[in-house]
Amino acid sequence: MSQEIAITTIAGIARRAGSVGRVSGLDFSTNDYLGLRNDPRVRAAAIQGIEEFGVGSGGAREVAAGTAIVRELERRIALFKGTRGAWVVQSGYVANMGVVPVLVGPGDFVFLDRQNHQSTKDGALLSGASVVVYAHADPSALARELKRSAPRAPSKTLVITDGVFGVTGEIAPLPDLVEAAESYGATFMVDDAHGSGVLGRGRGAVAHFGLTERVAVQVGTASKAMGVLGGYVTLMSDEILGRFADARPITHSTAIPAHLAAACLAALDDSGVGENFRMARHAWLALAEHLREFADRQFHRPHQRDDAEPGRIGKRTEDVERVRHVAYRYKDIFISRQRVARGTAAR
Fold first, then answer.
1. What is the pLDDT of residues 161-170, one digit of tens each?
2. Which end of the chain is more exposed for a tag (fewer CB within 10 A), N or C?
């Protein structure tokens, strides 16, 4: 397929930038993976929520306007993910910062993949637990670190990995990581911000590998596949669900506004089983290969990736000129120039 035909085909996807400055076109650096940000149903739900409850929530969870809508969203997310329950908070970053101190504290251990999102690292530091970093996506390295720490007999041990690593798009080897964690009695947590909506029929990387019953905690975001804003924690334990009610994002921060919760509900759909996710994902998959072929021809990219498709530009003059050529030739494509530290991504 020629580049011109590929771009024409891609123009049919709902992932539209709307307007960047005064130029309209397609944004290929967005984290709106399924194009739901401008979906008419999602927009209408948000507008209706504003008309009913206002723009803000007016306070913390216990006194916020539209709390019933947020609770309904939590029920639907738990149903969609197949977990015992869920809590909705202000962002995926806040979700990680809030849940890790609920799971572990001083005297405990947290094991983190070297390329985990910064929010899990910050949550681990906030917890006061001892932090151990293991080699990226390496179950054997995790097992070695768990074995090394075992003689110190911490009261609790937590392992955290991203389901899909946002910078590289790699899918974590969850089955082997879970196996290693279980061998040492560790609780397993997955930050699935980049996998939800894309893998596992939209349910994420954990469901993709059939590990829902074996992963105690999943963290997700509404800012990517849902195309909205917010974060959530899904849990398999009623006891931890209860303890999260006292987490700082719930008790010490203004709650997510009702119109954002309504937009998230519309993104999931009325049935709570993610039909809108599946339809948008189907359209995305139909075009994904064309996008990858186009990117492979234009940029050097690593292989075996998921929804995050990096194009490594570098600082060489020829690389910069290649980007300028693409941006000039296809004027309806926006390519973001992002400066991020190695192993970091947005939540």
1. 999 998 888 9
2. N
Global model pTM greater than 0.85: no
Task: Assign domain 43-268 one CATH number from 1.10.455.10, 3.40.640.10, 3.40.50.720, 2.60.40.10.
Answer: 3.40.640.10
Residue 173, token pair as written in the block = 């080897």
Give the SS3 label for residue 246: coil
3-43 per-position pLDDT tens digit: 333 333 333 343 444 444 455 555 666 788 888 888 899 99
Find the angle CA(71)-CA(74)-CA(80) to the nearest 5 degrees.
Answer: 145
Is the per-residue pLDDT at 92 higher than 60? yes
| Domain layout of the chain by residue ranges | 3-38+275-334, 43-268
Q: Which helix (H) or strand (E) holds 6?
A: helix 3-10
Segments of 47-205 assigned E as strands:
85-89, 109-113, 130-134, 157-162, 187-191
The count of other CB atoms within 10 Å of the CB of residue 251 is 12
What is the C-alpha separation between 100 and 207, in angstroms, rounded?
21
pLDDT at 287: 55
Q: Quick count: other Cβ atoms within 10 Å of Cβ 138?
A: 17
